[in-house]
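Summary for the lay section of the report: proteins are chains of building blocks that fold into shapes. Here we show the chain for Phospholipid/glycerol acyltransferase domain-containing protein and then a coded description of the shape we predicted for it.
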Amino acid sequence: MARIRHYSFNGYWAVWTALFLVPLALFAVAGAPARPIRAATRLWARGILFGLRHIVGLNYVEEGREHIPSEPCLFVANHQSAWETLAFLVLVPDVAIVAKRELVAIPVVGWFLRRSPMIIIDRSNGREALRTMIEMGREAVAAGRSILIFPEGTRGAMSEQLQFKRGVELLYGKLGLPVVPVAVNSGLYWPGGSATRPGTIVVSYLARLAPGLSSAAFMQGTERVIDRELDRWRPVSRPVAETVDA
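The coded shape description reads as follows.
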């Protein structure tokens, strides 16, 4: 059954994504209007979550949404799977996600993500990546949008202790936004980008941090609290249920 779910979902993903070739062409002719493109990107993400729920049996719940302010903020989240990258397009509809350049190379989807717009950085050029992240971050905040960053820089396993890249401290200091740490346990169900196990992903929004904290206080309030929250799931980080290779 796991293999059937796996290939059925992959087929659904391909067909659902192909349907967006028509709006892509229309938006391209219309000059790539940002707001309709963001709406279409959210619709695509909702469709993927729908497929995960009804084909794979993978759902999600949110905890602590009361910590999200009404004004723009900086979401700092751990990264275990492709799930949170697309899910946050739905969970926080107008969010600007800091993402690696490779993400926008995905056919069809990449065109929409680049123009949503996300904050696309080239990790191979560290100094330029930081400059781009700060400049585009300021533009997003000026437009009333929140920002999401995965400070680990790549996906990590549930069993691994978090280690944030220092760029997140710089972004925090330059933007002056309140911070919402977020713990996600998606690696239990979608490791390596392959939907392998039905269940319920938990998105836990933790206590908000004020802007202007010291570097040490910021790191303690983000990296350490997210790491402690992940301890809720680490004893079962290697499920024995049926899986499918990526």
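Put simply, here is one thing we learned. Helices lie at 2-18, 21-29, 34-56, 83-91, 109-114, 126-142, 167-175, 215-230.
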